[in-house]
Design a protein that fits this description.
This protein has 145 residues and is an alpha+beta fold. The protein is 28% helix and 40% strand. Strands 1, 2, 3, 4, 5, 6 and 7 form a seven-stranded mixed β-sheet that branches.
Length: 145
């Protein structure tokens, strides 16, 4: 799927979510809350980076059609330096495996517009989840299980 088409689809899903018409099922796996000593460390050009990873699975049904998108963010930190990499996948509905290599056949060539829409969706569903409006279910997964 092209980045522009997915961005347009996300615009529609965001609008329907704001109207209260969609129920989202999210699964989140993140190393963010782990102690740095438990996180992966990589060394590039003499700099050792601490690696945070976050996978998020977004699922909903809109107008009778299933929508599944998995996003991945890798954040590298070294003191005040921060680098971030983002990937977007559209796997078949039966694939919910959080592994970049496994998901790679389903990658979408993401541009800045698409990544912005993914961020807008994330912010919206998290705000609704915090409000406990009943349209969002969130399952947190342990990154080491």
């Amino acid at each position: 799927m092209k980045s522009a088409f997915l961005a347009k689809t996300l615009d529609e899903l965001i609008a329907e979510t704001k109207k209260g018409h969609l129920n989202w099922r999210l699964e989140l796996q993140s190393t963010d809350n782990l102690d740095d000593s438990a996180k992966q460390q990589i060394t590039e050009k003499g700099i050792t980076w601490t690696v945070d990873e976050c996978f998020t699975s977004f699922y909903c049904k809109c107008r009778g059609k299933d929508h599944l998108m998995i996003t991945y963010e890798q954040i590298l930190r070294h003191k005040e330096l921060v680098r971030s990499y983002n990937l977007v996948f559209l796997p078949p509905l039966n694939i919910r495996y959080f592994d970049v290599g496994f998901l790679s056949p389903y990658i979408v060539d993401a541009d800045a517009v698409l990544l912005d829409r993914c961020h807008q969706l994330w912010t919206l569903v998290m705000d609704l989840y915090k409000e406990r409006d009943g349209h969002i279910s969130l399952k947190m997964l342990d990154p080491y299980e």
